[in-house]
């Protein structure tokens, strides 16, 4: 008799255990589930097994090979193009099934008597027999009702509570006659429960249900996975143990050393080549794989530890799962139901909260408390704040529950009864998260002034007029459309300093959250006349009469963002001829490619209308790209230089603030106008602070981040920038193209290479040590300056990604090309060398 082992499942609900394993290959008692099934088949004299594979098929083939080592004959059928479903995969191998055959799921632990089920099938003359069992809670399974003759009369897949009509459920094990497969179409996804059995019932084929005695557990989710272990250790199911029983309930593999002072309370299973340290305590139900090291004084209460894990001293593990090759450093706590994926590291004294799942190859920093799933990214850090506010994948890292806690943590650092503003862009995800933040703030007694969907320059500008302690703004990340960015402002509208960020992080991770009584819960109000307040400040800092008398025609693409609802009102007040594109609000943001298409269309419209210039506004009103009168885009370093030139022409001897990597053309332009240049770290907060704290700053920022006009408000403002451009073009009586032509011709190039986080610090040290101190500027990254040529190379680690950016700047293009290539090779060689050393160690 042949058996079909359905082993194609990806096991989504078992992740992160199944990120690199098919579901049937997940170990139970240090043996794959599929091996327990194969052992069951062999015990029932079924030795010809056909495994149907789809997800990561090579893992199972490499393990079982031809099956000889397991006492069976194994063959494999792989669904190459698409999953065919439970029934479709069996139809796919119909030519191999010419006699009565058994179908069994590869993701359950059972000790059913399959020979007894086969006798039942033959006695009844059945064409199809479903092996059934009784369970206390049938909601997760297919419920089946049979008549007095055990013939199936009704079944329902995964019923709701009100639909339960039996506690007898389908176990995914079937005995079938080969002709029944004729009912299934070839090459089409088909399911036994949803498609095949309803059809047999409709056709009146003799289909029976055999209620089997014995143990059965569908290992469909993580709770069931742990339960299967504990049941097996308690002797509730007949399985073959991988190791001999040293004494009652204690199974120990070969070459394993257990310190005499360790306390082991059976049932416990310990694999081959393990080391159990002094005074370690292993409670009943603990399962330890092969090649595992347990440090001294470790306290293990029913963890399931896979092969190759290293558990440090004084570690506490509580009914958790530690996957292959994971390291849990000393004094860490991994609590009930938590799962740590393969090859991850849990730092010293870190804590993983109950039920939290960590995907493979992640790093939990020492002392960190992780209370949300860690799926994307590489590290769970002790800090929430990055280069700019709190950023993360929308609805994955930044979820409603995360935002509620973050809001409560921020509110807990303020006085009870304080007021804060909350604003956002118009995207649906931002609305959801801002409401969660508001709930968290209210819960700790903070009153919220909800500005709702507001351009970020407006939110910053009105904040000082509202007498609040600070503000929060939620928007899609300006550089990554699948990320959210949550920014925190002080009472003046400037991003909060690092010290304040640390206080919020402390409240968040320590869960030191204030809880207000009912009468102290915060309130929500909705301030009005925000745009009017912003417009008043806007007008004060413009030559409005110049704009009114201007004959400029401007085409503005708002990219379906909230700034489109603000700027037309302002320009309309000044009588400016503005053609508006894409000003309607949209709940979703255009992608980078879609924005490029819109930019091309903007250039065409500018040419067709013979407009003065065009502009595309992005980043919720903070950033912009110009298009000149012939439709050519002006962005990045060219835009920085152009804005510097225009502002200093109107306001000579002013100070310009730019990031460290900005083009050297800025200094040349400033020199023409007796101006000064201040360079800052390459992050928006540093630019804002420098613009606020230095005297006579007339412009700050860059084409990549936006431009700051400190007299208006401390943040970036594309809307004011557009109005200022209209004013200055009139005063200076030149077109953008003409001004562009007057800019210094400086060669400025950048290349980016991947650099592991662990190598960045060593790379910076190496560069500092291998250059004369007089040639270095260390504002941010390492800038190597050739003062004779007024040229430089900047090696700048990326703050948010495992990348390093190499900038080269000179009047001599050949110098730039040569040095860019030279430093790229130097950096790449150093990274490869460091990685080789780390791998060797």
Characteristic terms for this protein:
single chain; 5 domains; eight-stranded mixed beta sheet; Alpha-D-Glucose-1,6-Bisphosphate, Chain A, domain 3; alpha/beta; LbH_EIF2B3/5; 841 residues
Account of the protein in words:
- The structure is a single chain.
- The protein is of the alpha/beta class and 841 residues long.
- It folds into 5 domains: 2-218, Spore Coat Polysaccharide Biosynthesis Protein SpsA, Chain A; 242-380, UDP N-Acetylglucosamine Acyltransferase, domain 1 (3 Solenoid); 390-528, Alpha-D-Glucose-1,6-Bisphosphate, Chain A, domain 3, CATH 3.40.120.10; 545-741, 3-Layer(aba) Sandwich (Alpha-D-Glucose-1,6-Bisphosphate, Chain A, domain 3), CATH 3.40.120.10; 747-840, Alpha-D-phosphohexomutase, C-terminal domain (TATA-Binding Protein, 2-Layer Sandwich).
- The strands form 11 sheets. It has an 8-stranded mixed β-sheet. An 8-stranded parallel β-sheet has the order 16-19-22-25-28-31-34-36, with no helix packed on it.
- The protein is elongated and about 100 Å long.
- The two termini are 52 Å apart.
- The mean pLDDT is 89.
- It comes from Vasconcelosia minhoensis LEGE 07310.
- Pfam families: LbH_EIF2B, NTP_transferase, PGM_PMM_I, PGM_PMM_II, PGM_PMM_III.
- Residues 3-232 form the Nucleotidyl transferase domain.
